[in-house]
Specification:
Organism: Nothoprocta ornata
Distance between the termini: 53 Å
Number of helices: 3
Shape: extended
Number of strands: 4
Protein name: LSM12 protein
Strand order of the largest sheet: 1-2-3-4
Length: about 150
Amino acid sequence: CPSSSGKPNHADILLVNLQYVSEVEIINDRTETPPPLASLNVSKLANKARTEKEEKLSQAYAISAGVSLEGQQLFQTIHKTIKDCKWQEKNIVVMEEVVIAPPYQVENCKGKEGSALSHVRKIVEKHFRDVESQKVMQRSQAQQTQKESSLSS
């Protein structure tokens, strides 16, 4: 298929698991030769696979080390912004400069005073503000649902 993004030299490729196909019906037979498939950047794909594997192993390590759910969520938030982020036992180490120890609050961010530490502190502050506003929104939605169900009774 031509690309849905409209980019030239790109195509949408649809994969179908044939184990779930019970019947195939040919609607019309094409006579022209399809355009050649684009070449794949194998090294780029290998790098992406390696990166994904490292991220999954990092998540598995955090779970096996007994890191709290809040710590795991904070790690994911930081990692979205700063890729140089890893676990060191239960501590989050960012850019080899900032260490965040449990319970993973702003005051638990330690490192040499400077732009790296202040940047990480801002990310941690924003993460917890977002988590809190999400909780408030969920509570208000639950209360609204409860009110509606009690009115309909």
